[in-house]
Specification:
Elements: H1 10-31, H2 33-40, H3 44-61, H4 65-72, H5 74-88, H6 98-130, H7 135-160, H8 163-181, H9 203-233, H10 244-267, H11 269-287, H12 292-306, H13 309-317, H14 325-354, H15 356-376
Helix pairs in contact: 1-5, 1-6, 1-7, 1-8, 3-6, 4-5, 5-6, 5-8, 6-14, 7-10, 7-13, 9-10, 9-12, 9-13, 9-14, 9-15, 10-11, 10-12, 11-12, 11-13, 11-15, 13-14, 14-15
Length: 380
């Protein structure tokens, strides 16, 4: 298979932009969480519950995702879910009470959860039919979309001073982009339904992929929420450096994902995952070393190492014999999503008992566990 850059053809760019759309839309909501809390007079407890409804929505659609994809096709399902997420994201900004907010965020979670499965399944089909590698680069667009949404979105927020108008503008941008781009992927679908035989169902590879994804996403979620506090409370970083841990993690992750497909073409998915875990584990050792600048370097290494792991897990999950791509991807996506949610909570509990430095040590142990699983279970 030859390697093509994801910017090279309109179809690949259109699919990559779909990944960017998810993070761009979510970052728009994240910017205004404090505003929403103040507007509805919600405590941190109730805001946490509101965010939990996003997770409930995502989980509720996962058991149905394979049947919906069979009916619609991956291309059409991706298009519909991008449009649905764009529209649903406007409604939390209309909320006048917490109940309306909860219901709105449930539908945001449902549409985003299904979009994650549909678009990864779409990439899997395109890679097989076009004989290209674009999975990692597509996930690079996700990282890029989050950076743009948070950066330019923050500037736009300071100019508009109107959250609802901001959400509407982003929604219109998404609708316009899909009107221009969707034609290049909307008709793509799996060629016929897979006939699955019970004897051919490979539970071990699916379980192995899911457990690796769970362990890695625990660390990703924890770093997103706790890296700044770790630098501030444990390493006594000056104010201007407090956000640099997550910034370095995000930048190297985006870079790694845009180059990941080229590396995979040379090494293969499993070796890519294992090397990424090793680099990430080295980064975590630097983070828990107790020194500021080695820790900052460590966060960058974690982002670089972890950058290709989740895309490669999706690629493998969508390529298993006798398993519908959407079912394999849903299994990895669901367990990974649990890890992403459990990570920050679990890290907080360990930090309360043993301290933040020890809690990052626990992340190192999870990373080692993921390496062991990659050696024993990822033989697909």
């Amino acid at each position: 298979m030859k390697h093509l850059k994801i910017f090279k053809q309109k179809k690949y760019f259109a699919i990559g932009f779909g990944f960017a759309a998810v993070s761009l839309l979510f970052s728009t909501w994240i910017i205004y969480i404090p505003h929403t809390a103040e507007k509805l007079n919600l405590s941190e407890e109730y805001i946490g519950l509101a965010l939990f409804f996003i997770s409930i929505g995502a989980f509720s659609i996962m058991p149905l995702s394979a049947k919906i994809l069979d009916y619609l096709g991956e291309g059409k399902a991706t298009f519909i879910s991008i449009i649905a997420l764009s529209i649903f994201l406007v409604f939390p900004f209309l909320a006048e009470n917490m109940y309306f907010l909860y219901v709105s965020l449930y539908f945001v979670g449902m549409s985003s959860g299904f979009l994650g499965i549909a678009i990864n399944a779409l990439v899997t089909i395109v890679e097989k039919t076009d004989k290209v590698l674009i999975m990692s680069g597509s996930h690079g667009f996700y990282s890029l979309g989050g950076a743009i949404g948070a950066g330019l979105g923050g500037l736009l927020a300071s100019v508009l001073h109107n959250p609802f108008l901001h959400a509407c503008l982003v929604c219109l941008l998404m609708l316009l982009s899909q009107w221009i781009l969707a034609g290049s992927y909307i008709k793509i679908r799996t060629a016929g339904k897979l006939q699955k035989e019970k004897k051919g169902f490979k539970i071990k590879p699916v379980l192995g992929l899911a457990l690796v994804g769970f362990s890695i996403m625990i660390s990703e979620g924890a770093i997103a929420d706790w890296s700044s506090l770790y630098l501030q409370k444990v390493l006594y970083a000056p104010t201007w450096l407090i956000g640099m841990g997550y910034a370095g993690f995000s930048i190297t992750m985006a870079i790694g994902r845009f180059y990941g497909d080229k590396i995979t073409a040379r090494w293969g998915s499993i070796k890519m995952i294992q090397m990424g875990i090793v680099v990430g584990a080295c980064g975590l050792l630097l983070v828990i070393s107790g020194s500021l600048f080695p820790a900052l370097l460590g966060f960058m290494l974690i982002g670089l190492g972890f950058s290709g792991i989740i895309p490669e897990l999706y690629r493998l999950a969508g390529s298993l014999d006798d398993i519908n791509p959407s079912e394999g991807i849903a299994a990895v996506s669901g367990t990974g999503y649990i890890g992403f949610l459990v990570g920050p909570v679990g890290l907080g509990y360990v930090a309360g008992q043993l301290g933040l430095q020890a809690s990052f040590g626990v992340l190192f142990l999870f990373t080692i566990f993921s390496f062991v699983m990659s050696k024993t279970a990822l033989k697909v």
